[in-house]
Hydroxymethylglutaryl-CoA lyase
Amino acid sequence: MSLLTPPAHVDIVEVAPRDGFQSIGDPLPTAEKIRCIQALLDAGITRLEIGSFVSPRAVPQMADIGEIVAAFVDRPGVRLAALVPNLKGAELALASGIRELVFVVSVSETHNRSNVRQGVADSLAGLAAIVERLRTLDEPGGIRLRLDLGTSFDCPFDGRIAWPQVEAVLAPALETTRGIELEVALCDTTGRATPYQVAEHFSRLGERYRDGQLRWAFHGHDTYGMGVANALFALHHGATALDVSTAGLGGCPFAPGATGNTATEDLVYALHGGRVHTGIDLCRLLQAADRIAALPGGQTASHLRSVPREKLTKC
Amino acid sequence: MSLLTPPAHVDIVEVAPRDGFQSIGDPLPTAEKIRCIQALLDAGITRLEIGSFVSPRAVPQMADIGEIVAAFVDRPGVRLAALVPNLKGAELALASGIRELVFVVSVSETHNRSNVRQGVADSLAGLAAIVERLRTLDEPGGIRLRLDLGTSFDCPFDGRIAWPQVEAVLAPALETTRGIELEVALCDTTGRATPYQVAEHFSRLGERYRDGQLRWAFHGHDTYGMGVANALFALHHGATALDVSTAGLGGCPFAPGATGNTATEDLVYALHGGRVHTGIDLCRLLQAADRIAALPGGQTASHLRSVPREKLTKC
């Protein structure tokens, strides 16, 4: 695919309500979360990672996930996903009406143990348990699964991740999930991936896996300034969904002052320049970004928000 | 050219000593400028826009250009260029030993009048006068010319710039400069260009101009977060030189707090990830960036400098 002819459409997956809200030390009031999410929907966001069904003791920021989901689960035209760390979380998510589950496993054994306190094999067993549960549903086709492969490019402990390490986790995961509607995200957890590494890994996906039910996504951070470039290189090598966070809300776990997920508004600006359809109104998205950036305790990083609003045509 | 196979080499053109030093209100001490430039050369920078031969009344920051050039003009393996606004500046530059002249004309009539207080036609006449002078030299082949086409994508006054507007200035400029060793830079003066617009304009250059003596360059800003992506899209569509500023020194004339030229270290990080040869040692470049970022009154913006140094492998 030439750089001159980008795909006509890409799914923008907004992760501020999960990655972003979780990064704020003191849990936000539920009503404020709901106002922020409503502002995102008003801007035209249609895919949203709305939160996590995790232990409120481990992650108090997500203790109100049930209320948050209840506020939005019946909205037509909005695709909500929730992160579930295990079968128990999946049960809670399904009971809440969530139709898309996000499961995370890191490609790096070291990072997986640090992140979810178990080895990759145990995480894959957890994935299998969730999939087994999905197969018992009357409407298995009605539930989507998103698999986030953390540290697909770089690990904060082990450094660069080569393609065979990704495949070593991806292959058994695909075996486990056969027949389920699946989207796999290669996640640049540290922000250290370069555009060429992103292009290489996505081109390998395209060469090796040609199952029409599979979709590919890229989840990136802008910590090293590669955010927009990495997302576009993924797009031109087969990604059909891109994870971003409005206002760049998120911060970076290892580096105070470093940025979080690539800002939704920065990526949307780039995509609209190529006439890629996202369904998002950039002006209203910036209004949502202003609200999110005003959250107490939030760490944000957005290029578009740093320029005077009148410089943004039509905003 | 596939995104998987970038060119083997690209010229990194460091513009901090011109765009950057000029952006600092109170002129820097000459000795400090020399120390910063030396640090850049120590990092492996081989192309440098070292300053401007302009009226010291108009631009006091460049009053010491003669001393600066004298300190570096005899360095082997270093290609120095200096901006010259007119024939008088060109004469001074040539007398100082400079072998590459940079001439700026904006594609936008409005911006050209604002920037250099004359119309585009008068600027082109000024270019012709310089070229005529070059043709009288004993060694015309020994002098290079760089033509910076300002506002090649967007004008702060007129908005988006379409390709025919670029061509309307480029075509007569190429006629004027025939036979001279020329590099033409499309400059994203405002930082508002998107990667797809960059790809489009460079692909037009490649289609229409096939003179082997011509080289193409891209001069970008990171104000809207497009810096690295725009540079890479230019690279994959024929640019063989990329202008950048270490530490992102420069600031933005219209937006306090907005960023200046794309940071050299951010772009070099991206390029090295694709094994593109730049000749630059990233660790030493970051040392130069630290020195530049410490300049009093300087406004900088660098992603790489914002992460802990130990996260940068081998730095």
Remarks:
- Chain A has one domain: 11-311.
